[in-house]
Specification:
Blueprint (H helix, E strand, L loop, with lengths): L6 H25 L2 H21 L2 H18 L7 H22 L10 H11 L18 H12 L3 E9 L6 H13 L2 E7 L2 H5 L6 E8 L3 H9 L4 E8 L8 H7 L13 H4 L17 H28 L2 H25 E3 L1 H4 L2 H11 L4 E6 L4 E3 H22 L3 H6 L6 E10 L2 E8 L6 H10 L5 H6 L2 H5 L23 H10 L3 E7 L3 E9 L4 E9 L2 E6 L3 E8 L4 E3 L2 E6 L2 E7 H4 L9 E9 L2 E6 L2 E9 L13 E6 L5 E5 L6
Parallel strand pairs: 6-8, 13-22, 17-19
Antiparallel strand pairs: 1-3, 1-4, 2-3, 5-7, 8-9, 9-11, 10-11, 12-13, 12-20, 14-18, 15-16, 16-17, 18-19, 21-22
Helix pairs in contact: 1-2, 1-4, 2-3, 3-4, 3-5, 4-5, 5-10, 12-13, 15-16, 16-21
């Protein structure tokens, strides 16, 4: 079998299984669900078989160890614990890196997984546990011992370290030690001794020994009980604390440089179940994205030719030709809807990476955060999906780092110690709205106002007339930050100008609402697609421009006498609101005749309005957006260009730059 033929299918399937495991790991961590264990095991087993069939041994080996550990848990032979969960999360991060390496033409050997494999093997019971010396304690603790202690604490037990010193005059040391253990068995359970029990029985110790002990009794009760044993000179009882293997050591090893991969290869019997899976038939087919892009490009050219055909039909004025063109137009409209649907992808492609990220970030800064996701099935154009991920990551990390308070601060404020972060998406007209809302401290508007006045961004009069939300929007200004401490993670206001610029480059708008002590909500509004849009064609002098219909509120006619002046700016009264005017001819340096009455296109950005003064309105038309290229990139108020039906080029106005 030529595995290269099925590489694309393998990558798609692998991503689906990775996402499934990540989702179920979070479920397992939160609820301990055995159904989640079964789902993780099934995905790990399938992924292992697929990787082995394709010859990616490093992926197969790691998933094999994960599968073996999960088999013990689902069979009831061992209990899942936090250290095992952390190891599995680490393993999934490594598998994602290896899959990305394979996608880039590699073979998945770019990650050293030896430490993670070893951690799994210790849990399984293979290999020797790596010891971690505990300060002021003779005990070394492995993954299993730590698991026993953790489970005991969950049922009301405490772990103690006992140091027992026998009298110098003792004759039968082993007998006295036995009496100590007998007394301890009445109060709890002995986990481990130093030296071990066999050495103590054979009196291969001086006059002292140590005991790792689990009990529901207090340290005082335990000390009193042991001290009553004859010829016991001294008893010291301390609460036992430790950091076991599985987090610091494994995490450090995971980040090590490239090392040889374990050479074990899964047997044929292990892979038989899924050997034929890469070529299995399904009710849906997977289409390479490049083919869809080619189809889209061809259709865009067709749309341009359709516009030219409509123009020619109008000039000829033949009824039969007009009727035929109208049928073509209806057919292409339906075809356009179908082609755009092919490019649409659920936003869960982006959302799926956030639960694990939220868990990791919250754990790093010792906060408790519950992430709620809704509307993941909402669809967006693939080009938007590819670009929106990073801005959302930044907003979410900000919400965790500087929005949601520490558990102790939340409790003092009368809130639950676990913060809540909501991520939701939904359709609204021909746009998609994404909201990120936290129940944290909110944005300190007074601090924002003070910083704005200090930097001369606002006058005292302007600051006094602005609402809290309008003031809070100033955090999107370049370099504007009110954070007392800028962390490595983020700082509210640091980099948010980049987020805003990125969203606006996608034809989107970002806004926020905040309330001190209650939280902050960011709302991102995005167009469904960036390729074919509806636009209003307008004239400025002899030039034709296109204004995206999604940003237009309405059009109106304005008389010269209706123009007012406020703050040295030209404005007009639009339904009781003073709206500033922008003259397209002045913005682009176009010579055009002055009229006593002229059309105005009212565009909006969030809650703000601007009236765009033009010479004439041509009408609404479907246009194909084309980038200007690097040479013309960065022209103010221009987001791209389109080719009209007569072959002329019309520039597309970026309405966001008009504000």
């Amino acid at each position: 079998m030529d595995v290269n033929e099925y590489l694309g299918l393998f990558l798609d399937e692998a991503q689906e299984h990775i996402q499934s495991v990540n989702t179920q790991l979070l479920k397992l961590e939160q609820s301990g669900s055995m159904d989640a264990v079964q789902e993780i095991f099934r995905s790990a087993h399938t992924l292992k078989g697929m990787a082995a069939t394709m010859g990616y041994e490093s992926v197969a080996n790691l998933t094999h160890e994960m599968e073996s550990a999960l088999d013990l848990v689902r069979g009831g032979k061992k209990a899942s614990n936090q250290l095992l969960l952390d190891t599995m999360f680490t393993a999934m991060e490594q598998i994602e890196e290896m899959i990305a390496h394979i996608e880039g033409g590699g073979n998945g050997t770019n990650v050293d997984v030896s430490a993670t494999v070893k951690a799994f093997q210790i849990f399984i019971g293979h290999g020797e546990p790596e010891a971690v010396e505990v300060v002021d304690s003779p005990f070394t603790v492995d993954l299993y011992t730590d698991s026993v202690i953790e489970q005991a604490k969950q049922t009301g037990f405490e772990a103690f370290r006992l140091h027992v010193k026998l009298s110098d005059a003792v004759v039968l040391k082993a007998a006295r030690a036995y009496m100590v253990f007998d007394r301890l068995q009445e109060l709890g359970e002995v986990v481990r001794t130093v030296p071990d029990t066999e050495a103590i029985e054979q009196e291969q110790f001086d006059l002292s020994f140590d005991v790792l002990f689990l009990s529901q009794e207090s340290a005082e009760v335990i000390e009193h009980a042991v001290s009553q044993v004859s010829e016991v000179d001294r008893v010291e009882v301390h609460v036992f604390t430790t950091e076991s293997i599985g987090e610091p050591e494994v995490a450090a090893s995971v980040e090590a440089s490239i090392a040889p991969v374990v050479n074990a290869v899964p047997t044929l019997q292990e892979t038989d179940e899924v050997k034929e899976q890469p070529v299995a038939q399904a009710k849906t087919i997977r289409v390479n994205l490049e083919r869809i892009d080619r189809l889209m490009n061809l259709f865009e050219e067709f749309i341009i030719d359709r516009g030219r055909l409509e123009r020619l039909a109008d000039e000829v004025g033949q009824p039969e030709l007009n009727e035929t063109v109208e049928k073509i137009k209806r057919g292409t409209n339906e075809l356009q809807s179908l082609v755009l649907t092919l490019r649409m992808m659920p936003i869960e492609q982006v959302f799926n990476r956030f639960p694990r990220m939220v868990r990791s970030v919250a754990k790093d800064i010792q906060k408790k955060v519950q992430l709620d996701i809704s509307g993941a099935e909402t669809e967006l154009d693939r080009t938007v999906i590819d670009e929106i991920g990073d801005p959302l990551v930044h907003l979410i990390r900000n919400a965790i780092d500087h929005g949601i308070e520490r558990p102790d601060v939340r409790v003092q404020s009368g809130k639950p110690e676990q913060g809540r972060l909501s991520l939701r998406a939904y359709h609204g007209g021909n746009r998609v709205f994404i909201e990120i809302e936290d129940d944290g401290a909110g944005i300190n508007v007074d601090k924002v106002r003070a910083k704005a006045l200090e930097r001369g961004v606002l006058t005292v009069e302007e600051a006094a007339s602005m609402t809290d939300n309008e003031l809070a929007m100033l955090i999107f200004a370049p370099g504007f930050s009110t954070a007392d401490v800028v962390t490595d993670l983020s700082g509210r206001g640091v980099g948010l100008d980049v987020v805003k610029n990125k969203i606006e480059s996608l034809g989107g708008v970002v806004s926020l609402e905040t309330a001190v002590g209650q939280g902050t909500k960011f709302q991102v509004s995005l167009p469904l697609t960036l390729s074919i849009i509806s636009a209003m064609l307008v004239m400025a002098g002899e030039e034709t421009y296109a204004i995206p219909l999604s940003s237009i509120l309405e059009t109106t006619l304005l008389d010269e006498a209706d123009i007012l002046t406020a703050h040295r700016e030209r404005v007009f009264d639009f339904r009781g609101q003073l709206v500033p005017l922008v003259y397209l001819k002045e913005m682009f340096g176009i010579e055009a005749e002055t009229k006593s009455q002229f059309p105005v296109v009212v565009v909006r950005k969030g809650n703000k309005l601007v009236g765009v003064v033009v010479n004439d309105l041509i009408g609404q038309q479907e246009i194909v957006m084309k980038p200007l290229g690097s040479y013309l990139e960065g022209i103010p108020a221009i987001s791209g260009a389109t080719i009209l039906g007569d072959g002329r080029v019309a520039l597309i106005v970026d309405s966001n730059d008009l504000f």
